[in-house]
Give the backbone structure.
Amino acid sequence: HDIPLYTDDSKNYCNMIVEIPRWTNAKMEICKEEPLNPIKQDVKKGKLRFVNNVFPYHGYIWNYGALPQTWEDPNHVDSGTGAAGDDDPLDAVEIGSAVATRGEVKQVKILGVIAMIDEGETDWKLVCIDRNDPMADSLSDIQDVEAKMPGILEATRDWFRIYKVPTGKPMNEFAYKGEWKNRDFANNVINETHGYWNALMSGQNAKINCSNTTVTSSKSNISVDEASGVLGSQPDKSGDGPPVDASTQDHCFVSRTVPEKVCH
C-alpha cells in the first residue's frame, strides 16, 4: 500500500512489484493477509505451489507481478466481463529482455490488457515493459507489441489458458473473445481498480491487511517505528529457498483447439 501506483504526477509510467522472475516456477504472491503484505510462496493442500512446465513453455515466460494501490473488488461485477473481481491487486506481465529480481519495483509502460476469467472471477492481466528496456521506445500500444514482438501475445494468452490444466483444473476462459485490449482500455481498468483500492483504504476489511505508513487517511496507518518492528520480526533470509518440486519439471502436453484473434 505504500508503493505509489504511478511513478510521478504525469501518470505516464506505473510501478510494478515483481513477484515472480521470468523462467522460474515458484508461485509467489503478495500476501494480503499479513502486515505490510510480504511476498510469500502460495501453499495449496499443505504443499508449496509451483507451476508446471506446459510445452513449449518453462515456468513463467515473463516477469510477473502486480500494480500497487489497485484492487479488483469482489463486490463489483464488471459490465464487460460479467464477473466480479478476484480480490487481488491488478496482475501484470513485463515483457522486457531483463530477468527481474523478486521484490524489485520496476517502472513500466502500460501497453494493453486481457480479461481472464479464473474460476468465475475477473482477473485482468496487463502487459507492460520496463521503461528502460531497449524496446520500450518502440512500443506504445498493444498493436506495437504484436508488430515488434510477434508471437508473445498469443503465447501469453495460451499460457494463461492452460497453466492450471496439469493440476486437474479446466482451461481458463477470457472475456471479449480473448482479444487483447489497447493501452487506453488498460488505463481505464487501472483507474477503476485504483478507485476501488482508495475505497478499501478508507474503510475496514476483515480479510485484507491494509497497514501502511504513508496513506494518512487510512484507518490502518501505522508509524514508521511500528513498521520497522514488523520487518524486524521477520526471519532472516538464508539460501535460495526450497527446491522446485520435481513433479513440475517434466513437460506437460495440452491440446489447444481455440482459434482467436490476437488483438483489435
